[in-house]
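Follow-up to my post from last week.
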Amino acid sequence: MQKRTLLDGKKFQITIKRLCHQLIENHTDFNNTVLIGIQPRGTYFADRVHQELSEILKTTSIKKGHLDITFFRDDFRRKDGLVTASSNTINFIIEGKQVILIDDVLWTGRTIRSAMDALLAYGRPERVELMVLIDRRFSRHLPIEPNYIGQQVDCVDSQKVKVSWKEQEGEDKVVLLSEPSILK
Amino acid sequence: MAAEKLSTRHLLGIKDINLNDIELIFETADNFKDVINRPIKKVPSLRDITIANIFFENSTRTKLSFELAEKRLSADVVNFAASSSSVSKGETLIDTVNNILAMKVDMVVMRHPYAGAGVFLSKHIKAQIVNAGDGAHEHPTQALLDAYSIRQKLGDVRGKKVVIVGDILHSRVAISNILCLQMLGAEVMVCGPTTLIPKHIASLGVKVEHDLKKALNWCDVANMLRIQLERQDIKYFPSQREYAMMYGLNKQILDNLDKEIIVMHPGPINRGVEITSDVADSKQSIILEQVENGVAVRMAVLYLLASQND
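User reply:
Got it. Predicted complex:
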């Protein structure tokens, strides 16, 4: 297994900061905007962005939730595993809100489609935007594109993008894993 | 974290599942409880599945609860009640079910007056079977929702003392509850008149008590069962009034206990017989929570069974 680091250390921090500033550019004081991290791994990213935004804007009132999409997946009964759901923690109404969906890696776009479906159970948002840390370009199965991108990467299906978080794995890092055979 | 998959293709009884399965069902039910408390109480998971609810015996709660669970998972539902069908014209169980399956049904939820009907069916047809009560044998989803309700109310089932009071002899709820609660680490006692306690019930590892007050003083949770008059072909006790005096739970008994216990009832309640109205409607009663949890637990069971596509 070959590893290539895409983001770590200072660059990782700068990327998060830049994304936060882009958000502020469009949403100013987050009065009518909520952050929704997609379970399971998008929540760490959402938590980090929420923390960073709260520091930059010196506020504690930015709303943040976690959304589980398990029951809305389109591959139920078509694929093994992945049946256990995580929790939803959305303690506010989505109706009329600007929603920023947040996930760590955007690949086929199917998770995001499920998330948009799942989101509607909490009301009709005014607008939904998508923020991802890593965008695997040219691999979409659905017409879905992110509004805010940490970094774009071109890779083939057999390669994996792995995002680690300081809170979970002890280190902020994004690596691209490849089987050596496919690179020959 | 519980396992990712159930160990069984059908839910025929608590006897056939293990602790991991129960924990997985509970964890999934937590998620569905969240779903049914949202403004939109529906998820699309089972949109390509058809479920037949086949009830050869009367039911209100279980049938409604299963139907709601199925609809909230977006499954297509067909209902069948034996009383209004060709069964009364002499059709056999397999023929009835095979005809329903020929209409491309993926899952069958069945209640039947004979013990083992679900097991029999699972050996002869391809669809997945969920037992919604077979005779005096098992009623697994009721046991799961009872244990789930105890877990919700007391935090955990392990180490808790549960007494099941009433007609143990004719009760599928009692058998499934005993097995489920014991698997989860609870201590179980049964209480009732000698005639309504099966002779060898102690071999399941349960305590037997014939004095209601002693039993209530021992327990954390009392599950009051209905007297199943429809299954009693002989007299097991002199009169309902006498039964109510000896084994009926009333407010006075409840208030005279040293501690506050939780009162459960699987329904339907015969008010004034096994439980009085003031107890059934008291703060200690979680009867309506049981009904609410029933939908979430059944959603979890159907969802987890359906995920085993093969």
